[in-house]
Amino acid sequence: MSLSRALVLLAAAAVLSCGTGDTVQRPYDNNDLQLVTSYTAKDFCSCMFVMQMSEEYCRRWTAASPAVATLSVDYKERSVQTAAALLWGEKARFVSERDGCVLE
């Protein structure tokens, strides 16, 4: 092995061995059901009111597996409400063509 290759390997090993020494991982702060309801509400709202696709198409486009979230569409308010496990839910509403849908 050449001297330059040995130095490169030694430098790489030194960099990889450096660390904070903290091996405890931070717990994931968000609940998966909250993420599913938020994602579904915003994407379904965008599909319906920004992309102007059919409700049937948007239901297929935003389907999650397993299907843990339910949703309802309010055409008058141009909004979508989702719920999961009776405890988590989210609402997204159409703001404008430029801004699309936002979570409330």
TrEMBL record:
Protein name stated in the entry: Lipoprotein
Domain of life per record: Bacteria
Record key words, sorted: Signal
Organism expressing this protein natively: Archangium lansingense
Residues of the signal peptide: 1-20
